[in-house]
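Lab manual, section 2.4: Encoding a predicted structure.

Procedure: take the sequence of the chain (377 residues), apply the prediction step described in section 2.3, and record the output as structure tokens. A sample record is shown.
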Amino acid sequence: MDKDITSALDAIDKVNPFATYLDNNTLSRVGEWIDTGSYVLNAIISGSIHGGIPKGRVTMLAGESMTGKSLFVQKILAKAQEDGLIPVIFDTENAIDPEGAERLGLDISNVKYVPCTSIEQARNSLYKFLMAVREKGLEGKFIIAIDSLANLQSELELTRMSKDSVSTDMGTKARAMKTLMQTCTNLGSVTQTTILCTNHVYDDPTALFPSIEKNMPGGKSCIYLPSVTVQLARKPIKDDGGKTVDGELAVGQKKYSGVIIRALTRKNRFIKQYLEGEMYLSFSAGLDRYYGLVDLAVGLGAVVQTGATYQLEDGTKLGYYKNWRKDTKLWEETILPKVEERIKDEWSYSNKEDDVPEEVGLENLINENIKEASTDS
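Recorded output:
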């Protein structure tokens, strides 16, 4: 490259210490993922059944009540803890109890618990913590969960309540939420801190036609600022005697042994968006890692459905689904390798099997937003 061109480009480095050439860039590249506990959810988020939540990025799980958001968060934190990360939980609903977290696999003695009420309180705490991570060189050591954004209030709302004011919010909550999400997105990337947020959803009362995309409390920044936004819905399911699900009715339960959770990727910076998948959450056994894979395998041609029975591509008969759905060796050695190969080909924007999912784009506003957050705090 010409010396004058190089010199001009190098001037950027004096202003922005994160500036580099794209082939050497690590800030916007994701190379590690945290298992969600479901092969299907891993796949629609990362483009690999062995992937999951992107490390060093913000992931949003949004859905109605009882879609397993808090359960997913705690299972992911437990897996991250196994991988050596230190979990930090911002609990806005006082819903994360030690006993439940321990049953889900967390070592609660090494989990930092932070109850919080306001958006600004959460933002300022996150800002100071992540700046300390950066200053002390602790990049990539932590995973943060905010459960949930919907229950956070703005400081203005709290002030009005203290004065018995009945004034309504005129966008202050959305603006405050935007600064929180900007802090998470920018400083999370800089410090390689994985951030997992949950949120609720609601229908748009002004919409003329129903939409699969639901609204979220806190404004649109909750949707477009995370790297991945997953929308969840649920359907209670009856125990079917082991044909497709494993369930066990407890005393007092008359019909439903679990829920089917349907996931839709509303935004994804790594692979194609609007991917859908199903998971099964048993009230007795927890999340089924394999549920939903048969539909995916059939859709990708790794398994062929012939009426009520199934067979492999080469004609090998598998029979009814209930007869082979628990055959781990068949899944792991025969079906899943083909599913993995075809997912990478089908869902990648470039359609190249050897591509590594990565976020493209220089985060050239990081220092500006750090300065802005510092002024606000």
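Check your result against the sample. Residues 353-357, 359-366 have pLDDT under 50 and may be disordered.
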